[in-house]
Every structure is written in C-alpha cells, then in structure tokens.
C-alpha cells in the first residue's frame, strides 16, 4: 500500500489513543477523517488541528457513539477505519438503556457502514484485554496462558468489581465478538482486525490524564476507586498486560499496512503484577510514598502466551518500565495529581 494515497477514519479521534493515532497517521501522509462527540469543544479541536499536516489532510466530523448513524459520513471514501471510540458512561436521552447495548450496536452499525461504503478494505478495532481473561470457564482458577483463545466469562462475579467496570468489560467483550463476525478471508470482502490492548500508559497529548494513566498512578494517589479497579484487573487477568501508547498506535498502523490481516491479536509488551509496579516505583522514585499494602498481591502462575503480532513481524519499542516513567512525567504536568503524589 502506498502511503499518503488513501483516506482513513479514526472514531474517537480526540481521546487518549485516538489523538495519538491521528497525529501519527498525519505524519505518515494519510488523509484522516476523525470523529469527535462535539466540534464545539475548542480544546480538542485545536489540539487536532495543531498536528503537522492537519491543515491539508485532516477532516473533522461530529459523531456520537449513541447516535451511530452520524458515523456514516466520516467513513465514506475511506479504505481503512480505526474504531477507537467507546462510550464510558451511559448518556441519558438516547435509545439505549445502557452502555453495553450502545457499544455493541455501535460496533455493528459501524461495521455495516464500512461494508455499505464499498471502499473500506479493513476495519481495525481498539479492543480491550479485559475481553481476554484467562479465567477458566468453570471459575475454578486461571488457565496456564493468556492468549487470543481466551474470552472473558461474563456469568460470574470478580472481586473488586463495580457496575461501571463490569459494564465496560461486558461491552468490550460483546462488541469485539460482534465485530469479528463481520471479518472475511475472502478476496474483495472486508477484513476485521481486533487489537485487545493491555493497560495503556505513556505521555498523553491531551491536557488531562486518561483513565488508564490514572490507574497506573493509583498506588501513588491512593484513590480508593482506582486502586480497587487495578485490583479488579489483576483478579480478572491474573496479571496486568501493559503497553505503551506509542506501541499501541504503531500496532494499529502495522495492522493497516499489512497486505492481508484478519482476526484477533493481543497487544501488550509486558505482563506484570500490581506488586511489581509498586516495587518499581519504590526503586526508581524513592522520594514517593507507597503504602505497604501495594507490595502485596495474589501470586498467579498464568503466563503471557500471545505472539501473533510478533509472528506477523510487529516489534514493540517500549518496555513496561518506560510506561511507568512516562506516567510519572504526565503526573508532574498535572497540578492536581502532582499535589497528591509529590507533596
């Protein structure tokens, strides 16, 4: 595929992953159709328009994932669609009764719009590792490996859960399964790639911290809700799959550039416990205060077993320590978080 000769669409273009992906795509010469919930949000619009190449090759579209028909215009004329957007909380006043229904219907509607466009060759979905739990189906413990064959069982309770994180996990699991059903290996038909990403860290372009960044910092801020969410992820996934934002964006673009690609590919460069994260902070940043409880966690023997992206030729550039270092850098720039960690 010749770079700069096609248009691509990024849903959720102003988010943590979306904005970094838009910037990288523009830098490689692509014309980018990016969707935002609100084109009157000057902070997000100005950031996207500040990227190199934006004046010539960035087109912004207003589209709300609770009103999926709004994505049709953004998809038209594109060869590749990156579906990054995910509703975080249910928004009142729309036809959906909950976030799960909205997320799954959005996935279905966007895939259908891609097929109707007759230009989209491949749909690439920013999935979540929360959909790939290595828990055994009978709830008796964890499997030996976490890999692409793992699907999160949705019928039993996980310690430290709450309604929001349960809805998110269910939504991402069902949406990914829905999208994979649209993928085809037949020549001339649309391919679908899902990238269940681990917990994403690294410096953000937006002037605020994303949810995943605050998760990595929760052992330092001692935010009870976030600490509980971190523990939930470990109980769900045995350990935390970790990946740098730059590697996430590079993986998305890699999946676009491949001559043919279809199916599920886990995206993470490390698989560590919450205690390992706390120990790294203590070693690298001894001036920071970390509660003793963060150095203690269950020891699960599950190993990382995914290598499908590597087999395709993808190479990660950042280790998990760099992810944490960059999260600290972000924290230093946020006055509220800074005051909770460094004073």
List the helices and strands and how they pair.
Layout: E1 7-11, H1 16-27, E2 31-36, H2 42-49, H3 54-57, E3 58-62, H4 72-75, E4 80-83, H5 99-117, E5 122-128, E6 145-146, H6 163-180, E7 191-197, E8 199-201, H7 211-216, H8 218-221, H9 224-237, E9 240-244, H10 245-257, E10 263-264, E11 270-272, H11 274-284, E12 303-304, H12 308-312, H13 320-333, H14 335-341
Parallel strand pairs: 1-2, 1-4, 2-3, 4-5, 5-7, 6-12, 7-10, 8-9
Antiparallel strand pairs: 9-11
Helix pairs in contact: 1-10, 5-6
Task: Give a quick rundown of the structure.
With 343 residues, the protein is of the alpha/beta class. 41% of the residues lie in helices and 15% in strands. A seven-stranded parallel β-sheet has the order 3-2-1-4-5-7-10, sandwiched between helices.
Number-wise, the strands total: 12
Residue share in helix = 40-55%
Oligomer: single chain
The major beta sheet can be summarized as: 7 strands, parallel
Strand content: 5-15%
Return the average pLDDT rounded to an integer. 93
Question: What is the number of helices?
Answer: 14
The rounded distance between the terminal residues' Cα atoms is 51 Å
| Rg | 19 Å
Low-confidence stretches: none
What's the order of the H and E elements? EHEHHEHEHEEHEEHHHEHEEHEHHH
Give the spatial strand order of the biggest sheet.
Answer: 3-2-1-4-5-7-10
Shape: globular
- Structural class of the secondary structure composition? alpha/beta
């Amino acid at each position: 595929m010749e770079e700069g000769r096609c248009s691509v669409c990024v849903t959720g273009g102003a988010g943590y992953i979306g904005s970094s992906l838009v910037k990288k795509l523009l830098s490689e010469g692509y014309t980018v159709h990016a969707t935002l919930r609100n084109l009157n949000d000057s902070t997000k619009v100005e950031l996207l328009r500040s990227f190199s190449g934006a004046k010539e090759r960035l087109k912004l579209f207003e589209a709300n994932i609770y009103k999926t028909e709004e994505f049709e215009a953004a998809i038209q004329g594109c060869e590749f669609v990156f579906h990054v957007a995910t509703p975080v909380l249910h928004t009142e006043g729309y036809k959906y009764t909950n976030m799960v229904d909205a997320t799954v219907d959005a996935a279905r509607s966007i895939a259908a719009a891609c097929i109707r466009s007759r230009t989209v060759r491949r749909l690439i979905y920013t999935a979540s590792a929360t959909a790939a739990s290595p828990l055994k189906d009978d709830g008796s413990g964890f499997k030996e490996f976490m890999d692409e064959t793992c699907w999160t069982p949705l019928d039993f309770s996980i310690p430290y859960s709450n309604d929001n994180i349960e809805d998110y996990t269910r939504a991402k699991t069902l949406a990914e399964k829905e999208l994979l059903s649209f993928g085809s290996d037949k020549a001339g038909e649309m391919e679908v790639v899902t990238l269940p990403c681990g917990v994403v860290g690294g410096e953000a372009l937006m002037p605020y911290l994303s949810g995943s960044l605050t998760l990595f910092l929760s052992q330092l801020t001692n935010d009870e809700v976030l600490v509980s969410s971190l523990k939930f992820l470990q109980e769900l996934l045995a350990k935390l799959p970790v990946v740098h934002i730059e590697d996430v964006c590079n993986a998305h673009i890699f999946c676009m550039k491949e001559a043919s690609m279809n199916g599920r590919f886990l995206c993470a460069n490390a698989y560590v416990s919450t205690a390992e994260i706390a120990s790294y902070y203590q070693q690298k940043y001894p001036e920071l205060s970390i509660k003793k409880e963060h150095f203690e966690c269950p020891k699960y023997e599950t190993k990382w077993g995914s290598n499908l992206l590597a087999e395709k030729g993808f190479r990660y550039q950042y280790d998990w320590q760099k992810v944490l270092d960059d999260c600290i850098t972000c924290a230093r720039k946020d006055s509220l978080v800074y005051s909770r960690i460094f004073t």
